[in-house]
Amino acid sequence: MRILTFTSLFPNTLQPDLAVFVYQRTVHLAQQPGSSVVVVAPVPYFPSWLPLSRWRTYSQIPHEENVGDLRVLHPRYPLLPRIMMPMHALLIVLGCLLPMIRLKKQFDFECIDAHFVYPDGFAAVLLGRILGVPVVVSARGSDINEYPSFYFIRPLIRWTLRNASGIVAVSEALRDKAVERGCPTEQVRAITNGIDPHLFGLMDRTEARRSLGLPDNAKIAVCVAALRPVKGHKLLIQAIPLVAKQNLPLRVYLVGEGPLRPELESLITELGLGGSVFLVGHKPNSELKAWFNAADVCCLTSEREGWPNVLSESLACGTPIVATRVGGIPEIIGSPELGILVERDRQSIADGLQAAFSRHWNRQQIAAHAVSRTWSVVAADVGAYLNECVEKWKSKRGKR
Predict the structure, then answer these.
(1) What's the half-sphere exposure (Cβ side, CA atoms, 13 Å) at 163?
(2) 143 located within any domain
(3) Which of 6, 68, 182, 314 could join 114 in a cystine, given CB atoms 3.0 to 4.6 angstroms apart?
(4) Residues 239, 350: contact at Cβ < 8 Å?
(5) pLDDT at 48
(6) Could you please report the per-residue DSSP string of 179-212?
(7) Mean pLDDT highest for which of 81-85, 131-135, 368-372?
(8) 78 or 400: which leads in pLDDT
(9) Radius of gyration of the chain (CA)
(10) Average pLDDT over residues 217-244
(11) What is the pLDDT of residue 318?
(12) What is the mean pLDDT of residues 182-206?
């Protein structure tokens, strides 16, 4: 089957770690027998001469490139951030329509595999109607959990959920939420994310710590997440003094970058945790294996989640989890042998960390569980569902 993957979040020359989970599913889908995939990853148009470094990156992304073995097109569309959010999807359609008409003549794709319900999914469903192909949209998390809270976007999300040929939810919890948002139950399929065993797996913990310059005798927790309020870093930091009362040689490493950094730095100083909590910044995907293996526990205290890949990656490295009971996290930690679920308050998080540090975990068993669901397995599930949706779409058209 010829598939067009449509997403505004995809790795590119300048952002190689952008939405790696979308890349992984797409490249493994392309490797399925009988499948071929081309990616359309639209980016905002930005004049290179304007002195705004944050947005100038977009002007430097090539109009077409190869990412791994995938052909990737980057059509431009007009966008004024925040101001035009309700118009975002229509502007994507405006920028992508002619390039996709040309692509349809070169690569006669049979379906569109879109990622994120809004704006990408809404735009993809409109483009699919114009081009006469079915569209399957993957719901990832914030597109279902957060965006419907915006008054002008809520009806666009509902329309997308009702008019796509199929919806993929990355967790059962997100599937239920999609149904609550208006998606017909029979139109949505839960297909979780996977693991790349070449990137994530067991290594000697002492070796991992030495490679990162971390102390051998400390109890180490790692949190891999963008420094944004929804990820709950402040709550995690506030829980550390409660764990420190147990006189553990505790070290917490926050791996990630984001707008919350100055506030977190101030909080660490205020609580006198400069020797216990460290902001180590963004680390490329290729370096995360060492961080997970170096840690005694991986912690995530999010307010909401879809399917946080970092937890599956931690488990693949044999490192247990302490995480809040939200979104798809209880599905990832489906057994007490994999980690500890906590409530979203300081004491519960502290108790969870203390229990995790005090327990002996079977790292081999944890890793074996996690790596059983590879991206190839995920891609096979997605490919089968795309075929199912295409056949249903053809059947409906044949009855008209």
Answers:
(1) 17
(2) yes
(3) 6
(4) yes
(5) 60
(6) HHTT--GGGEEE----B-TTTS----HHHHHHHH
(7) 131-135
(8) 78
(9) 22
(10) 94
(11) 97
(12) 93
Domain encompassing residue 98: 2-194+375-398
Whether residue 167 is found in the same domain as residue 39: yes
Q: For residue 165, what is the domain's CATH number?
A: 3.40.50.2000
Q: Enter the DSSP assignment of 34.
A: T
Edge-to-edge, what's the strand order for the sheet holding 36-40?
A: 64-67, 70-73, 36-40, 2-6, 111-115, 135-139, 166-169, 188-190
d(CA 150, CA 354): 39
The sign of the torsion formed by the CA atoms of 102, 25, 68, 94 equals positive
Report how many domains make up the chain.
2
Mean predicted confidence (pLDDT) in 68-72: 94
Domain identity same for 283 and 335: yes
Please indicate, yes or no, whether residues 131 and 228 belong to a single structural domain of this protein.
Answer: no
| H-type alpha helices, 213-303 | 233-244, 261-270, 288-294
199 occurs within a structural domain: no
Q: Are residues 221 and 296 in the same domain?
A: yes
What's the confidence (pLDDT) of residue 247? Answer: 67
The reply to whether 252 and 163 lie within a common domain is no
Please indicate, yes or no, if residue 200 is contained in any of the structural domains: no
Q: Which two tokens stand for residue 266?
A: 């101030």
At 290, the amino acid letter reads A
Flag the least confident range among 135-144, 155-164, 225-234.
135-144
